[in-house]
Amino acid sequence: MSRGRVSERAQELVAEYQQRVGEPELSTRELSRRMRASGVRITHGTLQNVLNGATTPDRSTLRAICAFFGVSEYYFDAEPRSAEIMGRIGGLDQEGLDAIERLLADLDDR
Fold this sequence. Notes:
Blueprint: H1 3-21, H2 28-37, H3 44-51, H4 59-69, H5 80-90, H6 94-109
Helix pairs in contact: 2-3
């Protein structure tokens, strides 16, 4: 996985998070603080470097980022449309997740 792809996908996750929490101006420093408060071990510098493409995170950092945003590691390897879908699913409430479950069950029955 390339730095650019990781950076782009991470930026998408941050933008979706900012929209979801209603804080479009949320700083990277504040986001990293929230991530640490939730148990994710990441520094502001590391998060900033991932977002601006200066570094590719190691697997443990990538897992931590994925855990915070509620996406699979596959999100960073997926094609853009698949990544978008997975990101949107990660932001669903229980009702939305139940609807996805019903849809998948219907597809399995075909």
